[in-house]
Amino acid sequence: MKPSIRPSDEDAAATSARLEIEKALAQYEAALNGSDTAAVAKMFVADAVFMAPNNPSAIGLDAIRKAYDGIFQTITFDTELAVEEVVQTAPEWAFVRTNSKGFVTVKAIEQRVPDANHELFIFQRDASIQWKIARYSFATNNPLPH
Question: pTM for this structure?
Answer without folding.
Answer: 0.89
